[in-house]
């Protein structure tokens, strides 16, 4: 059983690795990276969010997200505005909206290819199983 669980963990990690490599490669054609595009998605979902909230939404440390947000701001993709106290709020710029939109189209194409071996029912089952694992909290 332990060997089977380790094989399962490695298979999930490998699938994620393949997906991320394909996304990062294709997103470069839109002038962005997977990390930047993910940050744009998070900001789009929660305009005005703090770095802390956006770091959590993008699975990064606050420091890593701050560095990433600084690069996005320097590229004119986001705007950082003072909020209450020391809080910095994040918003997409029109350029950020364009990159986000291009990224969505690329992601749809890449993910369709990544999951092409699965039927719609298999994809629904996989999603359900992964969500159940995520809800379990893990170790």
UniProtKB/TrEMBL annotation:
GO molecular function: DNA-binding transcription factor activity
Record-level GO BP terms: response to stress
PANTHER family: REGULATORY PROTEIN MARR, TRANSCRIPTIONAL REGULATOR, MARR FAMILY
Name of the protein in its database record: MarR family winged helix-turn-helix transcriptional regulator
Pfam family, one: MarR_2
InterPro entries, per the entry: HTH_MarR-typ, MarR/SlyA-like, WH-like_DNA-bd_sf, WH_DNA-bd_sf
Annotated ranges, domain HTH marR-type: 1-135
SMART domains: HTH_MARR
């Amino acid at each position: 059983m332990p060997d089977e669980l380790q094989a399962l963990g490695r298979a999930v990690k490998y699938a994620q690795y393949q997906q991320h490599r394909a996304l990062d490669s294709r997103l470069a054609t839109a002038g962005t990276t997977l990390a930047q595009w993910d940050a744009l998605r998070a900001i789009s979902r929660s305009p005005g969010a703090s770095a802390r909230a956006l770091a959590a939404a993008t699975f990064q440390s606050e420091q890593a997200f701050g560095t990433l947000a600084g690069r996005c701001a320097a590229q004119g993709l986001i705007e950082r505005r003072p909020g209450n106290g020391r809080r910095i709020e994040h918003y997409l710029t029109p350029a950020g909206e364009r990159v986000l939109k291009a990224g969505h189209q690329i992601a749809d194409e890449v993910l369709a290819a990544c999951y092409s071996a699965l039927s719609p029912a298999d994809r629904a089952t996989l999603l359900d199983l992964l969500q159940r694992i995520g809800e379990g909290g893990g170790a």
